[in-house]
Amino acid sequence: MATLRRMSGPCLLVTFFFLIYFPIPTRSVCAGTVPVETYDQLLAAIRQTRADSQARIESAAEQEKVREAWETGMLIDEHVLRHRERADYGGQIIQRLSQDLGTGKRELYYMLQFARMYQNVPIVTVPSQLSWAHYRELLAVHDEAKRKSLEERAIKEHWSHIKLREVIREELGPDIDDNDPDIPDDGTTELPEIMPGPLDTYQIIRLKDSLKIDLGFGIYRDVPQKWAGKLEEGSIVKFVNGKLQKTGQAPLYTYRAQVTKVVDGDTFHALIDLGFETTVAERVRLRRIDAPELVTAEGKAAKAYLEKILWRDQGRVVMQSRELDQHGRPIADVWVQGQTVDRELVDQGLAEATD
Questions:
Q1: Whole-angstrom Cα distance, residue 330 to residue 328?
Q2: Which DSSP string corresponds to 119-188?
């Protein structure tokens, strides 16, 4: 009280304002509900606090993704309406936005359709409510009453978006509009099948007046002396049974790799065999897709599914990397047992095609 008496009038007002609107938390606020007398009780309480915090983080991330999708669609719709007299303007805008934002055209069309179907943005307040992946599935249901019923059931029964997709297909069948008129169908899949280049194939380049074998990743090996007169800059060679063989033009930078850790739904760590008894450890980003953020439930599902795919052959994969990201890490196409990894993730609705 002596301290308060020494304060001036304005200082007292400011002090009382902060005490009323920003009260100092007491110990009972944090620990009053769970007894923590023993270490085991303390550990359990901290684990529960961590779980509750993660649930709030996931809920906030899901809410923001749903809001972002709706607001993006609304902005596109309003802009296109302002220029509706221009033929195919909407398609042109989607194409430009896809290139400038690095977002797949189909994803942008989904956002546009989402804004047109929902007058107001759906609000996610708890983790059990629907994510953007759920709403993408619901866009196939054009009957508003049916769509609302499915929403309520999905929330009540805690369906994943994959479960929701299955129920939609089972119950509605021919009523589903897979080829929505708002989403142009060019007759191709979101991610076409691609094939890797040949393994153990390299290009001869010239560095500082000498020929080198380019292994990729900024690593080079000297051309054996006995081959120096047989090769020239730009030659393509194969390394077979310890010998170099000159070959024709072929896609480069295809390697065997061993996965060591999955980071999220589109990124993993691997040991990459460059040949010539050279191995590098790299963080690899899948080139053609973008998976949800790991803080979301959908992001966790994408990571778990990528782990499942990458370990089908005990972590052995083939990858082709012709570019690096801004941090110098490889961006790659990846195959497991001859099948592209990214296409399966997209087909499962666990990632967005960006290529």
A1: 7
A2: SSPPPP-STTS--HHHHHHHTT---HHHHHHHHHHHHHTT--HHHHHHHHHHHHGGG--SS-TTS---SS
* 349 confidence band (pLDDT: 50, 70, 90): confident
Q: Is residue 310 part of a domain?
A: yes
- What is the longest distance spanned by two Cα atoms in the chain? 95
SS3 14: helix
CATH code for the domain of 259 = 2.40.50.90
Residue 12 within a domain: no
Query: Which of 212, 247, 282 represents a domain boundary (last residue)?
Result: 247
For residue 241, give every residue at least 6 positions away whose Cβ sits within 8 Å of its Cβ, in sequence order, or none. Answer: none
Q: Report pTM.
A: 0.64
Domain range for 346: 254-353
Within this chain, do residues 56 and 167 fall inside the same structural domain, yes or no? yes
Look at residue 40 and tell me if it is in a domain.
no
* Nearest residue to 325 (alpha-carbon basis) of 97, 175, 102, 25: 102
pLDDT band at 12 (very low <50, low <70, confident <90, very high): very low
- Whether residues 171 and 60 share a domain: the answer is yes
User: Which residues, including other chains, have CB under 8 Å from residue 313's CB and lie 6 or more apart?
Assistant: 336, 337
Q: Which residues pair with 216 in a beta bridge?
A: 219
Tell me, yes or no, whether 268 and 227 share the same domain: no
DSSP 276-332: TTEEEEEEEEESSEEPPPTTSHHHHHHHHHHHHHHTTTTTEEEEEEEEE-TTS-EEE
Q: What pLDDT is attached to residue 189?
A: 53
63 or 190: which leads in pLDDT? 63
Q: How many domains does the chain have?
A: 3
Q: DSSP letters along 46-96, please?
A: HHHHHHHHHHHHHHHHHHHHHHHHHHHHHHHHHHHHHTTTSTTHHHHHHHH
170 shares a domain with 66 = yes
Q: Which two tokens stand for residue 185?
A: 């169908």
* Residue 96 belongs to a domain: yes
Residues 265 and 242 in one domain: no
Written as six digits, the tokens of 200 are 């153990």
Label residue 331 by pLDDT band (50, 70, 90): very high
